Every structure is written in C-alpha cells, then in structure tokens.
C-alpha cells in the first residue's frame, strides 16, 4: 500500500527583534524627517548681491596758484541692474613700497580743506550722478597734497525673514594737488644692467628717489634719458610718479641694434646727471647675424665630423701656425740600385 500523502509542514516562525531596537530605529527616522521638513518650511531665504560702481576720472591733478577756492567734479555711475546706496569719504595717502603701492589713512586737515557736495546718495540701475568737490588752499599745507575720494556701496537693509549676503564695493579717485610753486629735485639712486646684452635692445632696472627736502616738497614723474655712446640720440624715458622722500623702481628699456663694448648712461633731465655702466651688446640685427653665423658654423662642424675629415684643410694649416712641409731633393733620389 502506498503511504498516504501528508500535508506540508508549516514554515517556522522566526523570532521578532526586540522591541527596544525597533523603538530606537523608529525614533531616529522620525526625528530626521521632522528636522528636514522644519528646515524646508521655516528657513529664511538667502540672497547675494555684488554691487559695482564706476568713476571718471580716476586721477585728478591740479596746480593751485592763489588763495581762491578751487572746484572739481567726479562722475559716479551704477552699471548694475540693482539700486545701490553710496557713501563718500576723503582720505590721505602715502607710498608704501618701491612698486608704488599706496597706503590710505584718515587726515582731518585734508577733510576740512576738501569738501564734497554729496556725502551719501542712492543710484538706481544704470544711473549716474556728478559729485562736485571744492578745495580751500588756505587750509592746506604748501607744496604737494595727496588725497583720495572714496565711494563705498552700503548693503541694503535686511528684512526680518531674509538672510542677505552682501558685498561692498570701495573705489576712489586720486587727487594730486600742488598748493603753490614747487621744485622737482631727485636723483637716480640705483642702476642695474646685465653685462651681456642680447635680444631686441638694452634692458635693465633702476631706482629713482624724490630728494626734495624743502619747505614745499612736491611729487612728480621724472624725465629720464638713456644715452649709449656713440649710438644715436638719447632715448626719452618717463619715470613713475614719486612722492617726496620716496623711492620708485622702474624698468629701463632701450630698443635698437647695438654691437660691441658700450657705455650706457641713465641721466636725469632736470640735473643732467646719472650713473654709467659698461655692457657688451649684440642686439637687433647684430643678434640675428650672430645667430646665423653660429648656425652656419655648427653645420660646417657637423659636416666635417660626418665626413671624418680634419676641420682645417692642409692648404690652410699654415694659417694656424703650421706650414706645409717642403720636399727636399737629395742627390741619390730617383736612382735605383741596379743603376749603380
């Protein structure tokens, strides 16, 4: 007899994890979801602004002769698509290093002497305004006066539910004023030229110092000349703007074709004095000719080495101190032993 068919046994029931583990997982998931929802619904909206303004001119120069109040203006424009609030301020400046970087500082006498028509104003998108200023020479010292008018954008007020990340633009116009007459006094304190000069011309570096220690010192851009005897006329070189008692570094360039051992001078046009250096120059067309000559020589040497022949032919060895051997005839030359 066949065995009766038995129904399949039920699957074993696995034990469930502990209730404490399930509780911890549920609490963590609920807390994370609630925190994400709260940040999404109640976080404040953040904006960013990058304002910018343009000034014209960036440098204002004037010589004040007399006691009358002088005036000028600065055009301020807003090229952005948003309105900006602008505050204006007058500061003094001085030279900070040899490269001409400036250091600005607050100066009360300058603020009293240079007054602005607008200290605070608002510019709409694509708008411009002309800000006037006046200079009272009676309140300024004699000689050079160096100031700057800064225009700084002010971030707008924030709403209570808004987080605003703002950038402030601060640009200025330099005021280079001369109150009364002054004398340009200075000298070249350093002059450096590499001894071997190749390329398109002569090049080097120099330093110029404003040595005006009078009661009315002024800043100026020195006029310099580069003289190369006996090659042509002096080359004109305009130096950088140098404040009284300061030193500026400048690049010296004299393009042209020069060949040989030459004296190079850097002369101050005001005093007609300056240092002189000697250089060996091969520049301009002479540099190209030297390059072609070196290439031809290299090709010639390479060809002779490939052919394994002496670099100097026998017929030309006498030019280098060796004369060709002259055959000497002897009485017995040409007679064979049988003839004797």
Quick tags:
Immunoglobulin-like; six-stranded mixed beta sheet; flat; 340 residues; alpha+beta; 3 helices; 20 strands
Structure description:
This protein has 340 residues and is an alpha+beta fold. Among the domains are: 49-156 and 165-179, Sandwich (Immunoglobulin-like); 186-285, Immunoglobulin-like (Sandwich), CATH 2.60.40.10. It has helices at residues 19-42, 108-113, 285-307; strands at 45-49, 54-56, 59-64, 70-77, 84-95, 102-105, 114-116, 120-123, 128-135, 143-154, 162-166, 170-179, 186-192, 196-199, 201-210, 223-228, 235-238, 247-255, 259-268, 276-283. Strands 3, 5, 6, 8, 10 and 12 form a six-stranded mixed beta sheet that branches. A five-stranded mixed beta sheet has the order 14-20-19-16-17. A four-stranded antiparallel beta sheet has the order 2-4-9-7. Strand 16 (223-228) and strand 17 form a beta hairpin. Mean pLDDT is 80; it is low at 11-18 and 41-50.
CATH architecture title of the domain at 49-156 and 165-179: Sandwich
Mean pLDDT: 80
Beta-strand content estimate: 35-45%
Give the overall form.
Answer: flat
Q: Fraction of residues in helices?
A: 10-25%
Helix-strand string: HEEEEEEHEEEEEEEEEEEEEEH
Q: Number of helical segments?
A: 3
């Amino acid at each position: 007899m066949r065995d009766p068919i038995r129904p399949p046994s039920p699957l074993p029931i696995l034990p469930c994890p502990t209730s404490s583990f399930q509780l911890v997982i549920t609490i963590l998931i609920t807390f994370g979801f609630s925190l994400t929802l709260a940040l999404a619904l109640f976080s404040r909206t953040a904006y960013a602004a990058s304002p910018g303004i343009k000034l014209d001119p960036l440098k204002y120069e004037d010589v004040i002769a007399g006691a009358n109040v002088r005036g000028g203006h600065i055009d301020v424009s807003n090229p952005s698509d948003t309105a900006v609030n602008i505050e204006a301020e007058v500061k003094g400046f001085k030279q900070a290093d040899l490269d001409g970087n400036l250091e600005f500082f607050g100066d009360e006498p300058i603020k009293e002497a240079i007054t602005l028509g607008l200290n605070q104003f608002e510019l709409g998108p694509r708008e411009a305004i002309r800000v006037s200023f006046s200079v009272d020479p009676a309140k300024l010292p004699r000689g050079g006066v160096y100031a700057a008018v800064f225009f700084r954008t002010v971030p707008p007020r924030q709403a209570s539910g808004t987080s605003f990340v703002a950038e402030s633009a601060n640009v200025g116009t330099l005021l280079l004023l001369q109150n009364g007459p002054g004398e340009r006094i200075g000298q070249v304190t350093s002059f450096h030229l590499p001894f071997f000069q190749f390329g398109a011309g002569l090049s080097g570096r120099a330093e110029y110092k404003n040595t005006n220690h009078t009661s009315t010192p002024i800043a100026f851009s020195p006029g310099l000349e580069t003289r190369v005897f006996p090659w042509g006329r002096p080359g004109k070189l305009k130096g950088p703007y140098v404040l009284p008692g300061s030193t500026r570094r400048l690049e010296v360039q004299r393009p042209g074709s020069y060949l040989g051992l030459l004296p190079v001078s850097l002369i101050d046009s005001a005093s007609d004095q300056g240092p002189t250096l000697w250089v060996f120059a091969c520049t301009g067309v002479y540099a190209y000719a030297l390059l072609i000559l070196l290439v031809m020589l290299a090709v010639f040497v390479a060809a002779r080495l490939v052919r394994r022949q002496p670099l100097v032919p026998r017929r030309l060895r006498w030019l280098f101190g060796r004369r060709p051997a002259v055959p000497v005839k002897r009485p017995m030359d040409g007679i064979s032993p049988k003839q004797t």
